[in-house]
Amino acid sequence: MSKTKRRYICQACGGVSHRWQGQCPDCAEWNSLVEDTPASVFSAKHDLSNGGRAIEFVPLDAPGEKLERRSTGLPEFDRALGGGLVPGAAILMGGDPGIGKSTLLLQASAKLAQTGADVVYVSGEEAAGQVRLRAERLGHAKAPIRLASATSVRDILTTLGRGPAPTLLVIDSIQTMHSDTIEGAPGTVSQVRGCAFELIRYAKENGTVLVLVGHVTKDGNIAGPRVLEHMVDVVMSFEGERSHQYRILRALKNRFGAVDEIGVFAMAGQGLEEVPNPSSLFLTGRETPIAGSAVFPALEGTRPVLVEVQALIVRLQSGATPRRAVVGWDSSRLAMLLAVLESRCGLNFSSAEVYLNVSGGYRLSDPAADLAVAAALVSALANRPLPLRSTWFGEVSLAGEVRPVAHAGLRLREAAKLGFDAASGPAEVGEVPKAMRYDAVDRLPKLVDRIIGAS
Ligand code: TYD
Ligand code: MG
């Protein structure tokens, strides 16, 4: 009797194991392995070098169709997409539950439908009535969207196959979809992958833009369907702190454009509002100089965004292990920066608790943030406020040097535009705007001297 080969797929990362284990060997998630039945068994008996249809080769420089992009009607959404929707594109929209994915897509669908496009919105999570209520609240009650509440991919594709293909098809969410050709409950890797495959095939054949909503697990992966990331053309992530109103839309992968542009939104009573000038938003409420606050001209793609870095230092009396808590920045990078400040500048943080926060729920990934964080830390430690209208940027090395960063000119111009009249950063920056004083800080001790004073 031949033994059937069993395999187990991790629902978190898609890793394959040949025996069941309590913990996934790939991503270390617990209880995530689920048995999977392979769709087909390959054997040497199948010879594929015969019996196929001839495929057609075309020269690379053949005159192809031009990539026609279509606006979503939300310029911030278009910007994050690299210029709009491309027909036939499959887009995965990931984000935490409750962050606003359905709201964003309903607004974009309504705007697109109002321009005459045929838009189909299928919700597997909410009843049609609920979606309609939301549309009313968003002021789009009259938008000519074709709305359905369904979870069977067969039903959806059969229905769509009976008429002309829509311009946009939104599936909210892929985890609720179910295909009767595949075993397993909705949301399992095999279901998610199978359903996505069928829907993507429909989109490619019909030139429909497909948007799949995918919920994200706590560790930031698009749940289970990380396996989807290579099946789709575009992976978008909708981010933000739920307690804050700001939301950032970014592309993590884009076959049709750059991945470094962001779209900024604010969640308000009537849905998401676009924020064309994000700097003003991340800097609200800065009127009096406060120790521990430094402004950093961050760069998202080609777009400069000024954000405030806040540090708080609390001296401990007892010998308890001090806490380090970070929101919006990398905690190991903070540990490194503290070590550099201790060993190169002689500052002492070892008996103090250190808290670091980036305002507005913004997440910094730009390495040029080092100097702004250092300035905030030194200012908090010394209890000396930094000048209100000053900005700080530069990458700090382990030796305590301040290294040049990309697009210094762009950062300085944005800061000057918003009324900042002083900046500190690496020695080489190129042109500095006229209204701005630039202090080159080539080493961290120099920064400390400048903030604490040579006293
Ligand atoms: P939703 O789009 O349902 O999130 P997701 O689809 O990502 O799970 O957004 C839900 C949250 O947004 C909910 O907590 C309420 C809030 N919200 C507003 O603040 N204003 C609004 O106009 C709408 C529609 C939602
Ligand atoms: Mg939703």
Write up what this structure looks like.
The structure is a single chain. The chain has 455 residues and is of the alpha/beta class. It has three domains: 1-38; 75-276, P-loop containing nucleotide triphosphate hydrolases (Rossmann fold), CATH 3.40.50; 281-452, Ribosomal Protein S5, domain 2 (2-Layer Sandwich), CATH 3.30.230.10. The chain contains ten helices and 21 strands. The chain has helices at 75-80, 101-114, 128-137, 153-161, 189-206, 278-282, 331-345, 370-382, 408-417, 444-452; strands at 7-10, 16-17, 33-36, 90-95, 119-123, 146-149, 168-172, 209-215, 234-239, 246-254, 262-268, 271-274, 293-300, 303-315, 324-327, 352-358, 390-392, 395-396, 402-403, 422-425, 437-440. The strands form five sheets. A nine-stranded mixed beta sheet has the order 6-5-7-8-4-9-10-11-12. Strands 13-14-16-15 form a four-stranded mixed beta sheet. A hairpin with a 5-residue loop joins β1 and β2 (16-17). α7 (331-345) packs across α8 (370-382) and α8 (370-382) runs parallel beside α10 (444-452). It is globular. The protein starts with 6 loop residues before the first strand and ends with a helix. 40% of the residues are buried. The mean pLDDT is 87.
